[in-house]
Amino acid sequence: MEEILLENYSLIIHTIEFIAAITGVILFKKYNSGAAKFFISFLVYIAICDLIGNYTYLVRNGGFFSFLESTPLRNNYWWTTLTWFIGAIVFYCFYYNKILKTKTYKVIVKYAGFSFITISISYILFNIEDYFVKFFPFINVFGALIIFLCTMLYFIEILKSEYILTFYKSLNFYISSAILIWWLIVTPMVFYDIYFSKADWNFVILKWQIYMLANIFMYTTFTIGLIYSKPENV
User: How remote is the C-alpha of 135 from its chain's centroid?
Assistant: First the structure.
């Protein structure tokens, strides 16, 4: 199991990401009239960004980007922080602002998003050297709180509406459930990044297993949701 994980970890992750993205592209016309079209674009964006993030494989051992070996860009912490831990949160704030119907909820999400962007960028600027060598637990936890806020407002709104009878047919329900569980699982792992090294392969394997299973769950849920859900004109 460990050997399979070491050899195929990236392949497995990219495969499930691209399956979700390709499913969205195939079904784009189905969701073209609602906010779901933005989510499909986001899936494509994430798949491409993660693929680009693998540039680090071409930095090591005299690869095409070996000239980056002695620069801060030799690791992709900065890229993942920018495109996922910040970029994904910004997108979800935008998305939930689109799908929520309660004006107060929309305002809360809007200002939560602006606060997240402002505080995260300021935090990075004050810790710019660490930006290239590790993930920031502060940003990750802050992002998880934003996700929790967005999904809870969505679930509260659903409970108060007639959609409670057909929630299982809504793509937004699958999205909300998947990202909430993903962030709850993955966020605590950031505090243990100091152990993520070849000196402790047991932790490395454990972390990869957790990330892999969390990603499989999230993207599989997205794929099922895209296939099974009915379009919503919101």
Answer: 14
Number of domains forming the structure of the chain = 1
d(CA 126, CA 160): 43
Instruction: Give tens-digit pLDDT for 170-201.
Output: 999 999 999 999 999 998 887 766 655 555 66
DSSP-derived 3-state class of residue 48: helix
12: in domain: yes
Residue 234 forms part of a structural domain = no
Angle at 145 between CA 142 and CA 147, to 5 degrees: 115
Q: Say if 233 falls within a structural domain.
A: no
The predicted-structure confidence for 60-119, as pLDDT tens digits, reads as follows 777 777 777 778 888 889 999 999 999 999 999 999 999 999 999 999 999 999 999 999
pTM here is 0.91
**Domain residue limits at 35:** 2-228
Residue 76 forms part of a structural domain: yes
- Report the greatest alpha carbon distance in the chain: 60
